[in-house]
Design a protein that fits this description.
- The protein is an alpha/beta fold.
- Helices cover 27% and strands 19% of the residues.
- A hairpin with a 5-residue loop joins strand 8 and strand 9.
- GO terms for molecular function: peroxidase activity.
- It comes from Pseudocalidococcus azoricus BACA0444.
- This is Peroxiredoxin-like family protein.
Length: 186
């Protein structure tokens, strides 16, 4: 029998240090103001094996950051899985608008590599198993994983748009994020 909130019944790797660190609910309280500077970070890119620094990207082009909720290489958040697929399908549209799209997960490198293969991800997947970047951006957490959120960063390193998780509005759609890119100052 398939459980409704999981993509498979394989729960291997679900209960780990990250699970316990993110178990108790913490609401998304991101204090970043539109137009304000955003925190920089550096994380490994799962597909390439190297690290990427946000500030080195935003000087070249706008950056869309999509924090996502993946429990393990076998278990995806039921709100985030369709969102990940939509972003991946629209990845070329983000590039056509001159932006980079980064997907950030709290799964470790090994689990993340399996996610890349499973979902055939074209967009860069960044691994943040210690959840330090999720915490910098105060995306919140609940039941074993940080909550999803989306941000658009200008070429000046300033926040143009943010969307924080709620049960009424889980994720900003790819079409919404693409429309927001059109509103960036020239």
């Amino acid at each position: 029998m398939q459980l409704p909130f999981f993509s498979s019944n394989n729960f291997t790797g679900l209960v780990n240090d990250r699970f316990w660190q993110n178990f108790f609910p913490v609401p998304a309280t991101n204090p970043l103001d539109i137009g304000g500077l955003v925190p920089d970070f550096e994380l490994p890119v799962v597909q390439q094996g190297d690290r990427i620094r946000l500030a080195s990207l935003w000087v070249e082009k706008p950056v869309v950051i999509a924090f996502t909720r993946i429990f393990t290489q076998h278990q995806y958040c039921p709100f985030c899985l369709p969102h990940i697929k939509d972003l991946n399908q629209q990845y070329e549209a983000f590039q056509a608008k001159g932006a980079e799209l980064l997907l950030i997960t709290s799964t470790d490198i090994g689990q993340s590599q399996m996610v890349v293969t499973d979902l055939q991800l074209k967009m860069p997947l960044l691994s943040d198993p210690d959840c330090k970047t999720f915490k910098k951006y105060q995306t919140g957490q609940a039941l074993g994983a940080p909550l999803p959120a989306q941000f658009i960063i200008t070429t000046a390193g300033r926040l143009h748009y943010k969307h924080l998780f709620s049960f009424f509005d889980h994720n900003a759609s790819a079409s919404r994020l693409l429309a927001e890119l059109d509103e960036l100052p020239a």
